Amino acid sequence: MDLRETAEEAEFRAAARSWLAENVPRGLPSGDTREGFALHLEWERRLFEDRWAVVSWPEEYGGRAASVWQWLAFEEEYYRAGGPQRVTQNGIFLLAPTLFAFGTQEQQDTLLPRMAAAQDLWCQGWSEPGAGSDLASLTSRATRDEAAGGWRLDGQKTWTTRGAFCTHLFGLFRSDPQSQRHHGLTYFLVPLDAEGVTVRGFSRLDGDEGFAEVFFDDVLVPDDAVLGGVGKGWSVAMATTGSERGLTLRSPGRYTAAADRLLDLARAHPGRLDGSLCDRVVQAYVDAEAYRLFTLRQVSDEQAGRTRMGESSLNKLFWSELDIRLHETAQDLLGPEAEREGPWSKGFQFSLSGPIYAGTNEVQRNIVAERLLGLPRK
Amino acid sequence: MFFGLSDEARELRDGVRDVLAGACTPATVRAAWPGGDAAQVDRLWGALGELGLLGLLVPEAAGGLDLGPLVAVAALEEAGYAGVPGPLVETVTVVAPTLAAHELLPDVLAGRIRVAVQTGSDAVPYAAAADAVLQVDGGVRLLVRDDAKLEPVATVDASRALATVVGEGSPLQVDADLLPARLGTAAFLLGLARRQVDLTVAYVKDRKQFGVAVGTFQALKHPLADAVVDTEFAWPAVLRAAQSLADGDPDAALHVAMAKLLASESAYRVSRVCLQAHGAIGYTTEYDLHLFGKRTWALAADWGSPAQLRSELATLLDLNPRSAT
Q1: Which of A356, A378, B28, B276 is the most buried (most CB within 10 A)?
Q2: Cα separation of B8 and B15, whole Å?
Q3: A42 an active-site residue?
Q4: Whether residue A30 has pLDDT greater than 70
Q5: Cβ of B2 and A368 within 8 Å?
């Protein structure tokens, strides 16, 4: 065990900290509204200009070739500095790892720099009205058009986060009409300004227009819109969901920073801190630390070649439940003020989505029970 | 940055696992219960001594292995998995290091004598079956059995051999650090939890009702998954606290308290879920689950109960709850 940062890691952290201290914007509105999204894009482009948008990526795509330890340090500093939500996250944290793993050189060279620069803004097209937790039952289809030299997409995706503000969608379509379940699916990369695409935004629980449904009506896309091979969509998509549930999307810095803010809130209101609330504040701090330490263990094991199937489901179950407990505790500390719109009530509402998105926690519990514990599926 | 056990520590841990699989079966754990074959427990302790386990935190010059807190927690987690009866955590973390210059050390390291640890309370775990009691309360004193007045106290886990101890031992000119015992107990608890999960997984795969293995039901899968999540997130906290002890980190007390809180609560939750998943067979003393469940209940409250730990953590985190009036 060696918990010390190397000189290189410490230097990287210091550089990130000082840049963030000078540049993090204050008081940005929610990025899940049209006006807010535009302001967040300015911030994303500012990050990109100074090469802090995608630190773990190779330099030719706008990154700093940061190690995973350096990336974790950046994340910790980002949230500690009060950095806002990353409206580019579904591209840079979910699609990008999949592109690095499965994309052709040409796809990587074309898509990654524009994604890093927040020129192309990506949303996710997984769920459909009839396919949520049971994603493999999806019916949106891709039909081969030899004459046109591409694929025609039809169907509907929904719950697409920030779909109304994004420019591109990555999603799964059934490319083999005879296929069942997770066979015969293909992963497509689709520009949302293509002919036949209709996007309708709608409000999430917190009132922001953060959701969209996306309709595909005979949308023609070229062959190079396929990521990872025709019919390979399921295994390609599973790589993305691993990122979404696990470390890439939800680094520990976000929770340790939130726990620190909760401690500050509790210290600022000693009169409201009865024994039971105090216990819950302590628990939130302990849990955020436990998540951080788990991820350090996880990264170290991964680097040593020790990985387990389904481990990202452990992350997802823990961070989502922890986030709710933490925000519930803050709401209880705020008492009658909790109903007011503000960062804590916003965070509380957002935390409630944690056990739902990225695969419901019920599905994650099945994965833990079946893949990690080896319980029978049927 | 590297977080976790070194390859060397993993090898040692695997070695402990292999030895305990043979030397400490559920029958051995039962032997430590009243009416059991005490000689079987003596043989186990002899095997622990031969393995070097008892001297993991004793300097090599004094006859120990001096492998440090990380190896110690890894070994104690394995000992928890086996349900080793007797004051093992106490011996490894407190007794042997404190008696490093004492004439009794060779007997302690060989597992020929067992020493319980008293830290204030009259009731001392393992004292009823111990050869001596190390009294740590301000100073450090060693009370040998012949000089002690012992009164056994019945306990839920009867292998705990709890007894009230009256008597004052001879003072020793040494200091004793109790923090490692708290951490060692956390590691032992996570081993107990892992054992109960393994027993339960095997059982629910095998047990059929309504024509299928009960392990196919989400009503069992989900609570088991949640319980395992909690233990998975407790173990890294134990490792970090061990490293803090090794480094003399000024926050070691905070880290150890967090580790014990996470371990106590998660292991207790595992014990509840595993009992429920077994149905009636788990609610018997003929089946082995209770051996590990009852030890979990005892240790979850020993060396810092969750309530005490939360209160200590609140102070360490500079939180001042309004006192009830």
Answers
A1: B28
A2: 11
A3: no
A4: yes
A5: no
